[in-house]
Specification:
Elements: E1 12-15, H1 28-36, H2 43-50, H3 54-66, E2 70-73, H4 82-96, H5 100-110, H6 123-131, H7 137-154
């Protein structure tokens, strides 16, 4: 059973507490995967943490599901607002100039998301990735401070 299909990383799982105490045999991959599963991490984050081949990740998730050790979690994913993205672009333009749009597009592509669908929980990662590319320290600090204020004020 394929759990993961191309482009489908917005799937979340949580561990399930077993009511009955019976013996379960787990292999090393199952233990490794079970240790990192957290309902606040999507499959992309989990995959990066365990470093498993996609085929093995799929098989291992299937085994854990069959044993009722994990269950899928339905989440409504909220995305960054247009207002936040406009502020991000404006602040980045102040820091690096006309190359801001290109840099932003590259970083968003590296994060494997689209401009219109950047999950809110990845805002800090996005800001961190962008700030690493700002060469002038004072500009980098100003960019981070202004984005933190926007996050606080807007609650993105």
């Amino acid at each position: 059973m394929d759990i993961i299909s191309p482009g489908q990383t917005q799937i979340f799982f949580r561990k399930v507490a077993l009511a009955d105490s019976y013996e379960i045999r787990l292999n090393a991959d199952m233990i490794r995967l079970l240790m990192v599963i957290d309902e606040n991490k999507d499959l992309f984050q989990i995959s990066n943490e365990v470093g498993m081949d996609i085929r093995i990740l799929n098989e291992t998730l299937s085994k854990l599901l069959k044993l009722n050790l994990i269950e899928p979690v339905k989440k409504d994913i909220q995305f960054l607002s247009d207002r936040f993205l406009k502020a991000l672009k404006a602040n980045l333009s102040l820091a690096i100039g006309p190359m801001a749009q290109f840099l932003l597009e590259d970083i968003i592509a590296e994060m494997e998301v689209t401009m219109s669908e950047i999950p809110r929980y990845q805002a800090a990662e996005l800001i961190s990735n962008i700030s690493r590319e700002i060469s002038e320290e004072k500009d980098r600090i100003r960019f981070k401070k202004s984005m933190i204020e926007i996050i606080k004020k807007d609650k993105i």
